[in-house]
Design a protein that fits this description.
- The structure holds 3 protein chains of 3 kinds.
- Chain A has 7 helices and 7 strands, in the order H-H-E-H-E-H-E-E-E-H-E-H-E-H.
- By secondary structure, chain A is an alpha/beta fold.
- In chain A, the strands form 2 sheets. A 5-stranded parallel β-sheet of chain A has the order 2-1-3-6-7, with helices on both faces. A two-stranded antiparallel sheet of chain A has the order 4-5.
- In chain A, helix 4 runs parallel beside helix 5.
- Chain A is globular.
- Chain A starts with a helix and ends with a helix.
- In chain C, the strands form 2 sheets. In chain C, strands 3-4-5-2-1-6-11-8-12-7 form a 10-stranded mixed β-sheet, sandwiched between helices. Chain C has a two-stranded antiparallel ribbon with strand order 9-10.
- In chain C, helix 1 runs parallel beside helix 13 (390-418).
- Chain C is globular, with a radius of gyration of 23 Å.
- Chain C starts with 8 loop residues before the first helix and ends in a 17-residue tail after the last helix.
- Classes of the chains: A alpha/beta, B mainly alpha, C alpha/beta.
- Chains in contact: A-B, A-C, B-C.
């Protein structure tokens, strides 16, 4: 199972992981990168969860603003996938909370369904690392994530 | 699905209650009439008793409904959600773990899950899901839905078709753009644009675009909605917009969304085309033209002579866009006009001018500082000093938004 | 109800009175039942069409007309910052907020200045399209360019709204009470109706009591029932008034009141009728009446619509004294308006509004306290004289009570059905009980207050009476 996951991993990621843990068999769930997915759309979150779990990441999800906020306060993640539209709030508000109140530099990829420049500009201003529009190519996203984590 | 049933069910209850209550009133009147006829003596209360009894039944039914319906519907919702998520997982597994396909007649919840998943994806995974739509013959079902007399069913079919993007359904979808209902027209137009973006070949696509544009010109879609529809898909919009620009004369309500879409999609190659409309008589359209030019970063030579006039136009939005257009020029050229507009009569223009100056970096900031010292207009000194006391003020995202569309 | 001596004059009068009450009851009940049905049917239909898949593309659209939000504020230092914050976070492409401090004597202006870094700017010319009290100071902020604060001399709520109207520069205006909380999608959902049909000139939203609701970060998270019965009973009233009453009127095209707490108008239409009238306590109803008048007189196509989405939440009085004062004011406002627009009564020139809407308001809404109280007096008198037919009276009274209950329950049903509100079963039971006990005292107290108000209209013209605010959050 781990083997299967390893073969599908982009090389840069596995190298960096290798370096950090000093073992080739380090992709057990405890040591792999932790991804936090904040999205109110179950279709997207199930898709992403399956995709990233299959690629050997450890995935946590949250659907609404408050849960996500609490989760961020409680746990540290290696990367956050953040949808602009979430229940009871706005993904960008969560991003500014993460950057300004919690003072965390965790890489964030913002996902948006709307091709709105204002949103793009605002999220980059707030310190998003990357921006993905729906619909997207899942394999490209995996590469993007790996590149950021590398 | 369940919600819709619940709403019909409540409608039936309401109808029954209304009938019963009107009958109760009739019973009251008739009792009174009998009383009058029999010379002031009440003889028969049967009708009234029945009316009271049935009213009581109505009340019980309503109470029962209010108390238990949410529980029942929560239960169904919960079950539906669980099934939906299970199906999402199942389709995801088909994609990423190459699981077997589910057997043929799909329940509605599976179709919804499939489409929702499809809408998220592009690339090979999306085309795999597309082939599933064909495999399960879902398109026939939706085309039938388009012919339904019920509005909600037609909208549901259009939503499904939009998610599924099936080229063969384009004519049927275009026909819906003439619907009497605005929601249907909008949904159909969106659906058509999505389909156009997916049509692969050059030649059939060209034909389809022509067909779409011809329908669009006749269909009444509000300008704002049209803008967002035209901004949906770059692949579809470029040929559509080109086709629209080639038409002899575009009416203002069509021109504005077309130009706005050029800006939204950042189609720099069309900037010169947009610039030809800079002196269009309709103020709202002119605002859009200027705004799009700013977005595209294109300063047309034709703008220079009219810029001052725009700066002092009665329309505030034109003033603001003039300032932003000025910003595209190097500071040495724009400086005199910007200095002047620092003392503009309108606060918004003054504020925007300072923002514009700040965008120029150190030289612009220096100019703002100079304004605090030596600008002849007190209002200019005032606005400039606000920025001076607020050093490093971020260019607020709200400002961007606020300067956005002014329809 | 009458004994055998019905030949005397008194007996005849007595009989006549009975007929009168009966006819009134039948008329009111039948019209209210039909209205309720029409209203609720329209809500059900709206909800089926506007389910998530239809509303989504609409909400994503960038193409709404810009809105100016007009916020009149008088001594609101406790709640104004929270209100402005919630307004600033509304989901809408382009809007501006114009807060008008109507000669506030507390720190309304100061707290706002501090919270939003507002600086005074020199007053340049502005068009006094509508005559209003002069502006004293104007504040703006470079951090919040879409926020405008105006300080003016005290001139009443309508005057403050007129000043804001003069300053507003967008095609749509939205009047909001300083103490109400808007849903983030409020503007989007209302503005859609203006996009859908060009002839729409005004849209009223559903206003709901905020009491008891749970608010987090300026957003409504869950709706629960408030602790006191006075507040609970008002929720029943609001539910009935908006879902059955206003939705019903809007369905037949003669909505005559848009609540001052939340309403969106075309600016040019409001200017065309001369803005808000300042010498009344019912300026919100007056504006709508004048819109009807204007468009019907000039034979222009127009529509005044209503949206059943719960868009505006407002704090309702939690003690009887304030509540009575509020209802007194409302009833005076109603009378003032009906009197002001008395020429519309049965005037075929004003179409359905003149022939149905206004007569209904006179006969049912304005006159009901007098008639109902008359009924109670009649009932007492009959008991004293010993000429009451107990059996018939029993049936009649039961029917009347059951009728009222059925109408309330129909609206409550919608509430729990569509809006998925009051998730706890205990809340729903209390809600039903509230509807059942409404006629045990509560109704009569307010009836009496409205009756009293009918006679105070002339003495108290244009007087508001203060409302004590707790200041929410």
């Amino acid at each position: 199972m781990t083997n299967k996951a390893l073969t599908s991993l982009p090389s840069r990621f596995s190298v960096s992981n290798h370096d950090r843990n000093g073992s080739t068999m380090s992709l057990s769930s405890t040591h792999s990168a932790r991804i936090f997915i904040v999205d109110d759309d179950p279709a997207l979150s199930i898709l992403l969860t399956t995709l990233f779990t299959k690629n050997g990441y450890q995935v946590t999800t949250a659907r609404d603003f408050h849960t996500a906020k609490q989760q961020l306060e409680r746990e540290a993640f290696d990367l956050i996938l953040l949808d602009v539209n979430i229940i009871y709030g706005n993904g960008l508000d969560l991003l500014s909370y993460l950057r300004q109140s919690l003072q965390l530099a965790t890489p964030v990829i913002v996902i948006s369904a709307v091709h709105q420049e204002a949103t793009l500009i605002r999220s980059l201003e707030l310190g998003a690392d990357d921006f993905v529009y729906k619909p997207f190519n899942p394999h490209d996203l995996v590469k993007q994530v790996a590149a950021i984590l590398a | 699905m369940w919600r819709r049933l619940g709403s019909y069910f409540y409608h039936v209850i309401l109808l029954a209650v209304v009938v019963v209550e009107l009958a109760a009133l009739a019973a009251l009147v008739s009792t009174f009439v009998f009383y009058f006829r029999s010379g002031g003596v009440f003889t028969d209360y049967t009708f009234l008793k029945i009316a009271l009894g049935t009213s009581l039944l109505c009340i019980l039914a309503l109470i029962f409904h209010t108390v238990f319906y949410p529980e029942i519907s929560d239960h169904f919702d919960f079950r539906h959600d669980r099934q939906y998520q299970a199906w999402l997982q199942r389709w995801t597994n088909v994609l990423f773990k190459l699981e077997d396909l589910p057997p043929k007649p799909l329940p509605p919840v599976a179709v919804k899950a499939l489409l929702d998943q499809r809408a998220l994806l592009i690339g090979t995974d999306a085309s795999l899901l597309d082939s599933l739509v064909a495999f399960y013959q879902l398109d026939q079902q939706w085309l039938k839905g388009l012919k339904s007399r019920r509005l909600d069913r037609r909208l549901a079919a259009l939503a499904a078709l939009e998610a599924a993007v099936l080229p063969q359904t384009l004519p049927a979808v275009l026909a819906q753009m003439h619907s009497r209902n605005l929601l249907v027209r909008i949904s159909a137009a969106r659906c058509a644009v999505r389909i156009l973006a997916a049509v692969p070949d050059l030649h059939p696509r060209h034909k389809a675009v022509l067909l779409f544009v011809r329908t669009l010109v006749k269909a009444r879609v509000p300008a704002g909605m049209l803008e967002s529809i035209l901004s949906l898909e770059v692949r579809a919009s470029v040929p559509i917009l080109e086709c629209l620009f080639q038409r002899q004369s575009l009416p203002a309500d069509l021109l504005q969304p077309v130009i706005a879409a050029v800006g939204n999609l950042r189609l720099v190659e069309m900037a010169a085309k947009v610039a030809t409309y800079i002196e269009t008589p309709v103020p709202a359209v002119r605002v859009t033209v200027l705004q799009v030019l700013v977005k595209l970063g294109y300063f047309p030579p034709a703008a220079w002579p009219v810029l001052r006039q725009f700066l002092y136009d009665t329309n505030l939005a034109i003033n603001l866009q003039a300032v932003r257009l000025l910003m595209l020029l190097p500071l040495e050229r724009s400086k005199p006009l910007l200095w002047e507009s620092l003392g503009h009569l309108r606060w918004e223009v003054r504020c925007e001018t300072v923002f514009a100056l700040l965008q120029y970096g150190p030289l612009g900031i220096q100019l703002v500082n100079e304004a605090v010292q030596e600008h002849p207009v007190p209002a200019a000194v005032q606005i400039a000093s606000q920025f001076q006391t607020n050093p490093g003020l971020p260019i607020n995202a709200r400002v961007q938004e606020w300067l956005g569309t002014i329809v | 109800m009458v004994g055998n001596d019905s030949l005397t004059i008194w007996g005849g009068l007595y009989l006549f009175f009975q007929y009168l009450i009966l006819a009134y009851f039948v008329l009111v009940s039948a019209s209210y039942t039909l209205l309720t049905y029409l209203g609720l049917r329209s809500i059900l239909r709206y909800n089926r069409v506007m389910s998530s898949y239809a509303i989504k593309p609409l909400l994503e659209s960038q193409a709404y007309r810009a809105i100016s939000i007009l916020v009149p504020a008088y001594n609101e230092e406790k709640s104004i910052i929270a209100s402005v914050r919630s307004l600033l976070s509304l989901h809408y492409p382009v809007f501006e907020i114009i807060v008008v401090s109507d000669g506030s004597r507390d720190g309304t202006v100061d707290v706002l200045r501090e919270a939003y870094h507002l600086t005074e700017i020199s007053l340049t010319r502005y068009h006094m399209t509508i005559n209003a009290k002069p502006i004293k100071r104007l504040f703006r902020s470079v951090n919040y360019p879409n926020l405008i604060l105006v300080e003016k001399e005290n001139g009443g709520k309508a005057d403050a709204l007129n000043v804001a109207l003069n300053l507003a520069r967008y095609p749509l205006v939205c009047s909001v009470d300083a103490d109400s909380t808007l849903d983030v999608q409020a503007l989007l959902r209302t503005a859609y109706l203006f996009v859908e049909d060009e002839t729409v000139v005004a849209v009223g939203g559903t206003v709901r009591p905020l009491n008891g609701a749970i608010i987090q970060d300026g957003q409504l998270v869950e709706v629960r029932l408030p602790p006191t019965w006075i507040e609970r009973l008002q929720i029943v009233e609001y539910s009935r008034a908006f879902f059955a009453g206003r939705a019903g009127w809007a369905e037949i095209g003669i909505l005559m009141i848009i609540s001052g707490a939340f309403g969106v108008f075309k600016r040019e239409s409001v200017l065309a009728v001369g803005g808000y009238r300042t010498n009344t306590v019912g300026e919100d109803m007056d504006l709508v009446m004048r819109l009807h008048k204007y468009y019907l007189r000039h034979k222009l196509p127009y529509q005044i619509r209503f949206t059943p989405d719960p868009l505006c939440w407002t704090e309702v009085p939690s003690d009887l004294k304030t509540l009575r004062r509020q209802r007194n004011r409302w009833h005076r406002g109603l009378w003032e308006n009906l009197w002001e627009h008395r020429d519309m009564l049965f005037n075929p020139r004003y179409g359905l509004v003149g022939l149905v809407g206004v007569p209904y308001a006179w006969l049912v809404e304005a006159a009901s306290p007098a008639v109902e109280l008359g009924g109670y007096v009649f009932f007492l008198l009959s008991i004293l004289l010993g000429i009451l037919n107990l059996e018939f009276t029993f049936y009649f009274m039961s029917l009347a009570i059951l009728f009222g209950l059925v109408l309330s329950l129909m609206s409550i049903g919608i509430e729990t059905l569509l809006l998925n509100r009051y998730k706890r079963i205990s809340d729903r039971l209390i809600f039903i009980v509230a509807a059942c006990v409404e006629f045990l005292g509560y109704r009569q107290i307010l009836l009496w207050e409205r009756f009293r108000a009918s006679f105070q209209v002339w003495g108290k013209r244009g007087q508001w009476g203060s409302m004590e605010r707790k200041g929410f959050r």
